[in-house]
Write a structure and sequence with these properties.
The protein is α+β, with helices and mostly antiparallel strands and 313 residues long. The protein contains ten helices and eight strands. The chain is elongated, with a radius of gyration of 26 Å. The protein starts with 12 loop residues before the first strand and ends in a 13-residue tail after the last helix.
Length: 313
């Protein structure tokens, strides 16, 4: 869910599907949460996965546990299973990807409307190539307990694409096509596009956020895979201007303001009436220490300030 700080109102969702054996992951946005949108996203994801799906294992939400999805799995001869009843976050493989892909890239902001949905879709188009082709991970092979010490054994780190090619389940033609795609992409150029799409998406979240002032609307930025290719070792130049170029790091500024404005004071701020005076002192002498300023306040207002209050100055 890309809901921000609350559940009220509508917002864009993310459906995450990951293959347990290879780690290949597909993320798809949902304009709203329902059995119909989930089924449509699963049908689209089956076209994106480079191998056929044999089974689907979901959590216990009503968008998955319904006659529509169960009937679809029966018709397509897909094994349908679910997590343990009344156990939250029981899909460990998906929850891991939700943290490392969705939360770390998309963040915890609230995205609402068709514009945010389309921009999130473009971001996931770029992200699927970057994660599946260039982001290696280790898989746990075994763990052994010796008293209080537990020793974990992992396999060498591989990307999902490498695990898929080593599995031997793909036809030779499909293996060749996937290898050609990975070799044609420049990871640095691809990461740049991911970051540009990310900043444009964050700008859409800022528009509806009360903590950040409104700014000009940035048009939809489309992922251009041709700009991520290399031609004879030379990167392809951009043919169109970047609509998000020149934007500040809005997401970081937004998070900073959230933290500041979200503070709840448990007592009256002791320097509330002196802040203008303190500011003038700092502007007149920036090298003046906080201890010197605090002692000056104690001299001007005897008995008002206690020694420990210097920590709040």
């Amino acid at each position: 869910m890309n809901r921000g700080a609350g559940f009220a109102g509508g917002f864009v969702y993310t459906l995450t599907m990951t293959d347990v054996a290879t780690g290949w992951t597909e993320c798809l946005p949902l304009l709203y949460q329902s059995s119909e949108t989930v089924l449509a996203a699963i049908q689209h994801a089956r076209k994106l996965f480079p191998f056929p799906l044999l089974a689907i294992d979901t959590d216990n939400g009503g968008e998955f546990i319904n006659d529509l999805l169960v009937g679809y799995c029966e018709h397509e001869h897909l094994t349908f299973t679910r997590g343990r009843p009344q156990v939250k976050n029981d899909q460990c493989f998906v929850e891991e990807k939700n943290r490392t892909i969705v939360r770390q890239v998309v963040g915890h902001d609230r995205f609402v409307g068709e514009q945010a949905y389309q921009q999130l879709e473009e971001l996931y188009r770029a992200l699927r190539l970057y994660v599946n082709c260039f982001q290696p991970s280790m898989k746990l092979l075994s763990k052994q307990r010796n008293g209080k010490k537990i020793t974990f054994c992992y396999d060498p780190a591989k990307t999902p694409l490498q695990r898929l090619l080593l599995s031997g389940i793909l036809p030779a033609q499909t293996q060749q096509e996937l290898g050609d795609v990975a070799r044609a992409l420049d990871p640095v150029r691809l990461l740049e596009q991911v970051q540009q799409l990310q900043q444009t998406l964050f700008h859409g979240a800022v528009e509806a956020n009360p903590f950040v002032s409104s700014t000009a609307v940035v048009p939809l930025r489309v992922f251009a895979v041709d700009q991520c290719r290399t031609a004879g070792g030379v990167l392809v130049k951009e043919s169109s201007p970047d609509p998000s170029r020149g934007l500040p790091a809005l997401y970081q500024e937004q998070e900073k303001r959230k933290r500041i404005l979200g503070w709840r004071r448990t007592h009256k701020y002791p320097f509330a009436g002196e802040w203008e005076q303190i500011t003038s002192w700092v502007q007149a002498n920036p090298e003046r220490s906080s201890g010197d300023i605090f002692r000056e306040l104690q001299r001007l207002s005897p008995g008002r300030y206690q020694p420990l209050q210097i920590r709040t100055l």
